[in-house]
Each structure stands twice: as structure tokens, then as C-alpha cells.
């Protein structure tokens, strides 16, 4: 950071405060004059750093009141499957993950039905929290049919995501998505560092490779940090 242009240093300083939630949505940031004095730069340099964050949607200016942190949400396309690590990095942010569970389990009725296997069939299960700048943005619970991805359970999912591995092993041909807003169970809220009774966006996903049903997943997102989008061409 020391070798970066001065405005970039200010921008990274502001961005770190925002992403760490030290400055939450609605927080009034220091003025251009205060930043120029703090970093010993011209007001124009401070203005450039703020302007870029405004253009990127992280800050908003209110005439005569000041500049405030926006409630900017991470966004994923609903009709596509993208690697969450790639998404985070494409925004210029740091991606990381934490594997909570990685084991073989017996498929209970609901999972057996969604995965197209018999009740009590042994399947692979992973539970992983995905982070953007050390802030949790997704809890992924995934069940995989071992018949089509036998080495899934041996993978190191701190160096690659399940999506990344499965796309290489079982090329995607079809997806099924349903979305709902829920109040998550306490253990989900805890893993996502959410306040009790805060809403959660839940994406139910199933994926196929040719005619083979490969996996079913529950993807939980904090409602105040994430949104899904869809674009369809109408002729």
C-alpha cells in the first residue's frame, strides 16, 4: 500500500473500514478536508478516492449532510452458476473459506428424494462458510452422489470450492433453482455472524451432468449482504 498512489491509499483505507464493518451502513465518513489532513494530501486527491467508492456503490453523498456508507450487497446471477471465489475476486476483494463439516452421511428422506437415491444411501456432505473480506456472505450445505464424484470427499476445499471441483469433474448441463426468504435456525445465524431473527436468503440448488443428478445444495446468504439477479431476453 505504501507504494500505491496517494488517492489509492486513501481508497483502500476507506474500503477496509467499510468491509470490516467498523463503518457500518449509514456511517458518516470523514470529510475530504479531514482525510486530506490525515493523509497529508490535497483535497482533490481525497475527493478522487471518495468519488471512486461512490461510483462503485460503497458510498453515497448527501448534499449538505456528508458522505455515508451504503448498504451494498454482493450479487450473483440467479440463472447461472458461478464460482463464488471468482465472484468475490472479480470485485477486487479477498476470498476465503472455512470448512465446518466434510464427511459421509446417510441420506435422510428429504435429501434422498432431492438427490435421487434411496433412503439411507451413503452420500457425501460438506458444510462451508464463504467469506468476502473476512465477512461471511454464504453458508453452503451440499450433498453429493459418490457414484458420480467418488473423490469429492478427499478434496481440500480451502484451496478450491466444491463448485470449482464439480465443474471440472462433472461438467454442468442442467440446474434447478428455488429461492425463499427465511428466518434461519440459530446455528446458521451463528455461522453467518447474523443477528438473531435477521432474515436470510436461501437458494435451493440441484445440478445435473448430462442425465446424472450430481448434487443438491442449500446456500444461505445474510439478507442484508446479498442479492440474486436475473436477466431474460424477451423477444
UniProtKB/TrEMBL annotation:
SUPFAM superfamilies: Chorismate lyase-like, Winged helix' DNA-binding domain
Keyword tags: DNA-binding, Transcription, Transcription regulation
Any one GO MF annotation of this record: DNA-binding transcription factor activity
Domain HTH gntR-type: 4-72
SMART domains xrefs: HTH_GNTR, UTRA
One Pfam entry name: GntR
InterPro entries named in the record: Bact_HTH_transcr_reg, Chorismate_lyase_/UTRA_dom_sf, His_ut_repres, Tscrpt_reg_HTH_GntR, UTRA, WH-like_DNA-bd_sf, WH_DNA-bd_sf
Keyword NAD: no
Official protein name in the record: Histidine utilization repressor
Organism: Photobacterium halotolerans
Amino acid at each position: 500500500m505504501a507504494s500505491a498512489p496517494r488517492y489509492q491509499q486513501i481508497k483502500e483505507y476507506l474500503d477496509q473500514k467499510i468491509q470490516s464493518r467498523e463503518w457500518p451502513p449509514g456511517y458518516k465518513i470523514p470529510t475530504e478536508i479531514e482525510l486530506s489532513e490525515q493523509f497529508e494530501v490535497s483535497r482533490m486527491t481525497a475527493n478522487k478516492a471518495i468519488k471512486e467508492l461512490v461510483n462503485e456503490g460503497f458510498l453515497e453523498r448527501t448534499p449538505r449532510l456528508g458522505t455515508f456508507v451504503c448498504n451494498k450487497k454482493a450479487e450473483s446471477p440467479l440463472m447461472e452458476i458461478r464460482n463464488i471465489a471468482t465472484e468475490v475476486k472479480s470485485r477486487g476483494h479477498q476470498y476465503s473459506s472455512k470448512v465446518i463439516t466434510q464427511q459421509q452421511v446417510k441420506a435422510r428422506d428429504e435429501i434422498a428424494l432431492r438427490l435421487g437415491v434411496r433412503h439411507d444411501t451413503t452420500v457425501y456432505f460438506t458444510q462451508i462458510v464463504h467469506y468476502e473480506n473476512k465477512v461471511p456472505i454464504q453458508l453452503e450445505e451440499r450433498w453429493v452422489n459418490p457414484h458420480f464424484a467418488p473423490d469429492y470427499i478427499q478434496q481440500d476445499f480451502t484451496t478450491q470450492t466444491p463448485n470449482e471441483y464439480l465443474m471440472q469433474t462433472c461438467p454442468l448441463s442442467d440446474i434447478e433453482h428455488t429461492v425463499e426468504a427465511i428466518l434461519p435456525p440459530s446455528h446458521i445465524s451463528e455461522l453467518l455472524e447474523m443477528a438473531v431473527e435477521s432474515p436470510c436468503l436461501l437458494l435451493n440448488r440441484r445440478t445435473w451432468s448430462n442425465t446424472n443428478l450430481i448434487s443438491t445444495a442449500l446456500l444461505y446468504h445474510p439478507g442484508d449482504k446479498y442479492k440474486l439477479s436475473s436477466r431474460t431476453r424477451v423477444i
